[in-house]
Amino acid sequence: MHFISEALEDYVAQHSENEPELLARLNKETHQKILQPRMLSGHFQGRVLSMLSKIIHPKHILEVGTYTGYAALCLAEGLEENGTLDTIDNNEELVDFQRKYFDQSSWGKQIHQHLGNALEIIPTLNKKFDLVFIDADKENYIHYFHMIVPMMNKGGVILSDNVLWSGKVLEEVKANDKSTKVLLEYNELLKNDPRVETVLLPIRDGLTMSRVV
Fold this sequence. Notes:
By secondary structure, this protein is of the alpha/beta class. It has a single domain (6-212), classed as 3-Layer(aba) Sandwich (Rossmann fold). The protein has helices at 6-14, 21-33, 42-56, 70-76, 95-104, 118-121, 141-148, 178-192, and strands spanning 60-64, 84-89, 111-115, 129-134, 152-161, 196-201, 207-212. A seven-stranded mixed sheet has the order 3-2-1-4-5-7-6, sandwiched between helices. The mean pLDDT is 95. Keywords: Methyltransferase, S-adenosyl-L-methionine, Transferase. GO terms for molecular function: O-methyltransferase activity; S-adenosylmethionine-dependent methyltransferase activity.
């Protein structure tokens, strides 16, 4: 779903920072070889993630939902010199694909992959995070959020992707559409939870930025 015209989207991308060459190659190979390539963050959203990370300059980043590693590499651009990025995904087939690009970047040794159920892995990470990106199964967004908030440093930022869900948040919800039901509840949670202050940005499919207070 396009919230502005494709021509305006192209103009926005053309007048934002260029997509780094490594990410352009990752982007191209994802579209050539991987199912559901629209899951990839892409040029403009990737530059937004990069800019936010550079502003925050986090020591520890957590990403829930790696896919092919595009967003992880964008977020890594803002890491402190000795910082870490932990990224979790349950798709074993993508691990080598991700690692290939991680190791070609400047942050390969700082990016730690975790394969499995994020609800089981997150509690084992003995860190306080400055930046988190949630972009995984929508049905568990609320569980991820409640699990992650106590692990955040004060002033840390939680980014949540796909919160507009192709505009379905404004439509009548079908009885079997659990993802939209959860996202509606999640958006209300972020608006009203006193532990965070939130702004929902109409970037791509909706990106919420929540600052831990």
